[in-house]
């Protein structure tokens, strides 16, 4: 590979300071171009820096700032919006190797961690202290805490226990010029100055590099877990039933909805008996000391809504039922290339949003398998298509898919919803961001990023780029 002189100088500076933590192997660079969205950046990044310390991150950004070299921060690469994909002339800065738990304080219900730790590994370690960190993305077994923070991740449990923004007290942030800031606090309350921690959460690497986090923990929940499986003749009936559960005042820990197409694909993948044609399913869990009573009350609501309902008090059976929902992403991969999308609407508008998805399917001649975190109105429609990578290995969704996605996104906005509940904007949704925010707010938010990163070297081309 012929490297331009300026790039050679940047590489020389990086290697002089970081040594073999600077990786230019072709396979490593190729991997840094893509995430789980199926999208890959054009061209090859300059290098993959495998940071193992805060100092590594600072040195990388000092060199990048001095040379005007763009930097894209990466964790495990499990994102679904192309937000951590590094392309031509960019430094891919991996913090995956920074994966230590630095402190656990059961008395204060907090932990201090590095960004590269895997969500599930963190909770396995916290369980020994009778604690857990509540954010529960479907990718918890493979996604990092830093990535969860960067995207403002949600997950199956967030209807009851909140999203990442509710579970982070503070972050350590390295700015584009290498300065280290400690944002937030270790206290439950704290209103000194502006809440920059919340600003960083969900900022997708455009404000700085998260190198540490103070996490707000919970004690493990005593009592049993009850799981309810309810099938309905169609997805609208299931959506109406989920809205009825919410309206009843019940607060299940998990309420997941799968439409007929997604349910059929998962059953085929897991070699389960095929579901009833057209049927949709709600999987609901209750937990804590009142779990049984709450499950019975929810089951009554579902029965009244026309569901076929079964209640289990067996944790193992509950996990088996949830495994069906968690198998959604690999099931979509069996159908073709999947553009996995992410919109949210008010919970009462969930039935209307499924009506809109059905309309988009009819008008665009598509089948759009959809699952929803029904407890909070967050839907994941999947646009399936056949694709062949181009000469750069880039897979682009065809225009007819984006036309259907555009129709669906605008429907969510008309219903009072949002473009993304948990995946982020990244590169895939940036063209619609101003439609939701309005031009004035879009400009203001972009100006805020420039306060943190005046030269615009952090994750360029993402989020606020036209």
UniProtKB/TrEMBL annotation:
Coiled-coil parts of chain: none
Keyword match Flavoprotein: yes
Record flagged with keyword Flavoprotein: yes
Organism for this UniProt entry: Microbacterium lacus
Cofactor: FAD
Protein name stated in the entry: FAD-linked oxidase C-terminal domain-containing protein
Start and end residues of each FAD-binding PCMH-type domain: 41-220
Pfam families per the UniProt record, alphabetical: FAD-oxidase_C (PF02913), FAD_binding_4 (PF01565)
UniProt keywords, alphabetically: FAD, Flavoprotein, Oxidoreductase
PROSITE patterns for this protein: FAD_PCMH, PEROXIDASE_1
